[in-house]
Design goal:
Elements: E1 11-15, H1 18-21, H2 43-48, H3 71-85, E2 89-93, H4 96-99, H5 110-125, E3 129-135, H6 141-147, H7 154-169, E4 176-180, H8 190-194, H9 204-229, E5 234-241, E6 244-246, H10 251-273, H11 278-286, H12 297-303, E7 308-313, E8 317-319, E9 344-345, E10 351-352, H13 354-368, E11 372-376, H14 394-412, E12 417-423, E13 443-445, E14 457-459, H15 461-471
Parallel strand pairs: 1-2, 1-12, 2-3, 3-4, 4-5, 5-7, 6-8, 7-11, 11-12
Antiparallel strand pairs: 9-10, 13-14
Helix pairs in contact: 3-5, 7-9, 9-12, 13-14
Length: about 475
């Protein structure tokens, strides 16, 4: 693994999200949002799937997002550390409810707008490009209560208003945008992905795909607004990626793998190609799904496609049509997968597959012929202090190094990659489990699963390793 030189101007950096890092959950006029209702523990998964008992935080329950790692107050300290590593970009999200606390306020919340002004100013002062996601698992709770979230067409116009507000405010500061984070998560964790709450008797599939249509229309309107308000900006979509391997060469397994990939590609097909693919129309028909579309939707989707494809990659997945094989499932990953006997797993059961990263990048580029942006990739692990008072996270260096080498190979394959922002350059609250002990960062945050700790920051071994990777533009790999 040698001779990797990434393109000139490659955007090296890291990625965090408002809902997992900022904290200050009601400070500065912010309204409640999805993640503010997600506790740690056994309840969390059911709530993320849409089985929500309460739309207000309950007494005596610990919600890790409420303080998170307090990035809201400590962003200057953290950005200074990112700059020390040599970051060229930091991916963040704007909390929708900081800008419009209810989602339908007549005027935006100036305190919220000022926070992101200060954040972007600080990044730019350190020559770090902000890469901004408009909705990262984020819907104001008021819109869930009043309209049922994205099941209602009403949210399309409200999201467009929010997008236009932040494009206008930050047009001189932000040149890279994304619409919805991991938009395909709507099918797997519908409350987390889209604020969808289900009650007994609901046709979940109908609600999910109707909500998906509304998000796709809202995404197109955001692309339109971005191109009009910030003509020199680039705006992309974002996919939770990772190819499905068939377990055997049985044609039935091959076909099932294709179908599982299409579940996710569907969203990007619409956002990148500008139309519903024929396989989706057949799927709707076969499953008696009647997706309400308004006049002009088809033309809007076609006219306003994304400039690039953002994606996360953590692991590949494996699928089978054999009921016996299907009993051997991995744990932890949101996307169901059979254990792949050729690959190792992380402490949380996520398959470790660097070559799969190269495969996924090639498949996306073959499919869309648009620039790709790797906006999440990383290893969640338990990090412990050694006797020398250091955190030797060589396992993380191994994971990231092998994945970056695979990305280097994808670039040699001819895949156009804008940049690489690894997930969680600083420890943050895990989206899937709500844990702090599942750490991704180059920077340790003193915080445990119960919310105890000083929140002090400390460098891990991977800090200097990634600093060297960036300084050599990948040649040190």
């Amino acid at each position: 693994m040698s001779n990797y030189k990434f393109p000139d101007g490659f955007l090296w950096g890291g990625a965090i999200a408002a809902n997992q890092a900022e904290g200050a959950y009601l400070e500065g006029g912010k309204g409640l949002t999805i993640v503010d209702l997600l506790p740690t523990g056994e309840q969390r998964r059911a709530i993320m799937e849409g089985y929500v008992q309460s739309l207000i935080p309950e007494e005596g329950v610990y919600y890790p997002s409420h303080e998170a790692i307090d990035f809201y107050h400590r962003y200057k300290e953290d950005i200074k550390l990112f700059a020390e590593m040599g970051f060229k970009a930091l991916r963040v999200s704007i909390a929708w409810a900081r800008i419009f606390p209810t989602g339908e306020d007549e005027e935006p919340n100036e305190d919220g707008l000022l926070f992101y002004d200060r954040l972007f100013n600080e990044l730019l002062a350190h020559n770090i490009e902000p890469v901004v996601t408009l909705a990262h698992f984020d819907v104001p709770v008021h819109l869930i209560e009043k309209y049922g979230s994205w099941r209602s067409r009403k949210l399309v116009g409200l999201f467009e208003m929010y997008a236009k507000t932040v494009f206008t405010r930050y047009k001189n500061k932000v040149k890279y945008w994304m619409t919805f984070n991991e938009i395909n998560m709507l099918l797997h964790l519908p409350f987390l992905g889209a604020g969808l709450v289900f009650k007994e008797g609901d046709n979940k599939q109908q609600i999910q795909y109707q909500a998906a249509h509304h998000q796709l229309v809202a995404s197109a309107l955001a692309v339109k607004a971005c191109h009009e308000i910030i003509p020199d900006a680039k705006i992309g979509c974002m996919l939770a990626a990772g190819s499905f391997y068939p377990y055997t060469c049985n044609p039935k397994d091959i076909f099932k793998g294709m179908e599982k990939d299409r579940e996710s590609y569907f969203f990007i097909d619409v956002q990148s190609r500008g139309e519903y693919p024929p396989y989706a129309m057949r799927f709707f028909k076969d499953n008696q799904l009647d997706i309400a579309m308004e006049p002009g939707d088809t033309e809007l989707l076609k006219a306003h496609t994304v400039d690039y494809i953002g994606f996360s990659y953590y692991s590949s997945r494996t699928t089978s049509t054999d009921p016996e094989v299907n009993k051997n499932q991995t744990t932890g990953n949101v996307f169901g997968s059979i254990v792949n006997p050729y690959l190792e797993k992380s402490e949380w059961g996520w398959t470790i597959d660097p070559l799969g990263f190269r495969i996924t990048a090639n498949q996306l580029y073959d499919r869309y012929q648009k620039p790709l942006f790797v906006v999440e990739n990383g290893l969640g692990a338990v990090d412990e202090w050694n006797e020398e008072g250091q955190i030797d996270d060589s396992y993380r260096i191994d994971y990231l190094g092998s994945h970056l080498a695979a990305l280097g190979e994808a670039i040699k394959d001819g895949v156009e990659i804008i940049g690489y922002t690894s997930w969680g350059p600083i420890d943050i609250v895990s989206a899937s489990s709500g844990e702090m002990k599942k750490r991704y960062g180059y920077i340790y945050v003193d915080r445990d699963n119960e919310g105890n700790g000083t929140l002090n920051r400390a460098k891990k071994a991977s800090f200097d390793w990634y600093k060297q990777v960036i300084a050599t533009n990948g040649e040190s790999l």
